[in-house]
Amino acid sequence: MLLANRNNNLFDTFFNDDWFTNPWFDGRKASEAYHQMMRTDVQEDEKGYQLEMELPGYTKDEISATLEDGYMTITAEKKDESEDHKDKNYIRKERYYGKCQRTFYVGTEVEENDIHAGFQHGILTIQIPKKEPKPQVEQQRYIQIEG
């Protein structure tokens, strides 16, 4: 089963207060802007799952995917490496620089070689096959008795 982890926690409602409205996000609360990033469509068929994730403005080199303990994490990071902005007086700066990530549970049977990903025109597409859990074989273990 494929489940999304959206960082829902006790503090989400706390930061939705108008006090935390951020002018950099067009007057929206920072938490609302965060949830607009990395919007993902998940499709399922008999063979597996396909994820299509919006990552506009990112390059392939700014995106990474890792798999650990059955969880696949997609990270996108854009760094502001330009030096020419320091002497400029911005009235408004809307471009996003920073890091965002999403985590999906794909199961412990799936290995990194099973997952295929491609990035084109700001859309990250990931294919994840369905894998049947391996049945655990009960092994009888013998204890040596000395004497």
TrEMBL record:
Gene3D superfamilies: 2.60.40.790. CDD domains: ACD_LpsHSP_like (cd06471). InterPro entries: A-crystallin/Hsp20_dom, HSP20-like_chaperone, Small_HSP. Transmembrane segments: none annotated. Residues 28-146 form the SHSP domain. Pfam families: HSP20. SUPFAM superfamilies: HSP20-like chaperones (SSF49764). Belongs to the small heat shock protein (HSP20) family. This is Heat-shock protein. It comes from Agathobacter ruminis.
